[in-house]
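Newbie here. two chains, one complex. Structure please?
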Amino acid sequence: MSAAILSVRDLTVKAHLDDETRILLDAVSLDLAKGEILGLVGESGSGKSLFCRSLVRLLPSSRLKIEAGSVLLEGQDLTAISDAEMLNIRGGEIGMIFQNPSSHLDPVMRIGDQIAEGIRYHQGLDGKSARRAATEILSQVGFPDPICQYQSYPHEFSGGMRQRAMIAVALSCNPKILIADEPTTALDVTIQAQILQLLMELRDRRGLSIILITHDLGIVAQTCDRIAIMRGGKLLEEGPKRQILSRPRDPYTIKLIHSHPSMPDAEPVAEVAVAAAPVKPILEIDDLHVRFRVGGSLFRGSAVKTVSAVSGISLQIMPGETVGIVGESGSGKSTLARAVLGLTPLTSGHISFEGADLALQRQASLKKLRREAAMVFQDPFNALNPRMTIGQTIGEVLLVQGKIAKADIPQRIDELLDLVGLDREFASRKPRSMSGGQCQRAGIARALAVDPKLIIADECVAALDVTIQAQIIDLFRELAARMNLTLLFIAHDLAIVRNLCARTIVMYRGEVVEDGPSEQVFSRPSHSYTASLVAAIPDINPDKSLFSDARRVPQSIPSIKSMP
Amino acid sequence: MHRYRFVFLRPLQFLPVIFGISIITFILVRLIPGDPARVLLGTRATPTAIANIRAQFGLDEPIWLQYLYFLRNLANGEMGKSILYKIDVLKLIATRIEPTLALVVCSVLLSIAIAVPMASIAARNAGRGPDHAVRIISTFGIGFPPFWLGLMLIILFSVKLDLLPVSGYGATFGDKLSHLILPSLTIALSLSTVLTRSLRAAMIEGLKSDVATAARARGMPERIVFWRHVLPNSLVPTINLLAVNTGWLIGGTVVVESVFALPGMGQLLVRAIFSRDYMVVQGVAMVFACATVLVNFLADIATVAADPRVKL
């Protein structure tokens, strides 16, 4: 290994709270070589982001203090320099990109100006040369028309282009080290593959060293040279990628590897034996169209345009099926879910839930839907009323539904909490004192309180850590089997759907492009779009390269986001 | 530049608004008890003289016909004749509009000039001494009613220090400006407190935002983070607050104009109400209402200019 460009020794960060002192980083030591990509893996709260921010002294609160340790950047100890000197290190030596480009880019400043700002400040160029340099960087990170796009504002770009813009902003200061904090978590798989490829190209072209923070071992396996695993503020183990992935020593690493959904030997989902007797579908969708009006106002009726979110979908869902709906963001999968529950007006077509037609007898079928179908939402925390305890939240549903006697409600709440694997004492807790996984379990308990036949889960694990994701998926699997639930599971993460659902539906631009048993859809995709989605999943096996030509994302299928 | 298309379309919406305003002001003015002819001629006027005046100004017509005359005049760009001054209402307003307009503009500019630094100091020292000081000053600003504040400013700057004129309005530009300082300050001191509080909250939010973190992470000093990223983002929500308050301010100049004896529209309005000068009251109310509509329109344009995400 070449000499370390960055060498961290025993970095310790403590939080000084009112009545206690907590250790957030516990003597973490790490080296980063020149031109190396280091994957820093751990769940939220493991201290991986804090570690990177401590390097450049960007601590999120004034109560946090670096207590001990050293950070040597090419021999210079960053913990000892002044705040003024640190300004040159930040950006100039160590650049950062973040998970959510939408909130980290300045919404009221032109993209180009945000890049030029760093160039002018760090390299002391005048306005005109900075502008030229910024345009050059824009083209380096893959903007097709940099001169024109220099003038654009962040909201005019898709998520993937925003992330490219943020990389451009970081590169503008010409750093030696790039810290990428979950740079692709908010992106679709195909876009994720493009961004990861861009990072690797930049490493090769500029000799950048990259610290890639992620929770996805698949990404690490595909892009990194070395892996460091963190948990609870401690570095558990660290080493070359292949060694860690094939011979993990720490039990937590082993658990992480096993909970990765793209495990090549993940057991195929057993075909649920649909009852032999002819059953009627629980949900029938017939030539459904949902269009939204965009633009238009009182004085330009003629200019009103409509966007088709769902165009001509026909589906039959049988009782007891677990169906996964996948597709990029914007493919219409959430609109479909909302339409099924009567939350979005239908433009044309029919949805019938156990024979009740939502288009023809709206009131009657809504009433039926509310009593027999339930939804689990993406953001578990915000979907629960912060002022109510979990017991009150679930009790409210039970009371409104009136399916059980009022006196039996407390007992039923306990049963539901048992069912979703939450301790009974959670009935008296409020969401803010619970973790994301616990909140999602409570959300599922609330959905189950309806005693539904159909549950629609919209990206319900997207906001959770991998290990928690695996737990929630297991819970769904168990509940579906035990209670003969029909599950409509919407996700952009294909691996999870493959793991949980017997049947997979692939949506693209508001249409169903593929529908079939999951094993078949994923192993022998018949539509080229499905093939490109499957190819973009980062595999945990480093030998199945995401970027080899055989698996390269076909360019012929444009992403929805790049549509005019 | 289709984002600015509303600039041409929005004025069409003003027509029904102004029509509504004209009905309301017309009716409300006539609900004030008293008869203009009687007020004008005094208590010893003969019934014939009163009837003459009433006929001369069309006050003996049925009320709906009076309204139609009013509308017809409006369409011709006239607002009738003042009963008291015996001249055209529009001409009368034209002679009085300048001090009021100047007062409003100066007050708004001054309150921005006070609010931005105050909010910046408070936000950058949130929870510490300077923040508390700004809050205390703001509370005083809200607590003192403008008429009292105006009097105190006169006593201090005009009477004791003899720096500025006591009241009235000047003839030359510099003279006018010196007459406007105290009244504008009176208004700005209370207006800026509202703005300061809104700006401070937005700035504190902005300093904690991801945008600021990202700017710091690329080595921008705190000064640039604040002035180039936090401030522009925090102005957006404040623009509308300023517009609402300016609308209120236009009608609210009455008190300040009285305290400082500024010969503006506020004074004109007060005198017109006392003498039941219907035409003038209507005219001034129409001008105030249209000005308020216009200010909100300008605020919309400013919002679109300040935030590229906004589409109207």
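Moderator note: DSSP finds twelve helices and no strands in chain B. The two ends of chain B are 12 Å apart (CA to CA). Thread marked as resolved.
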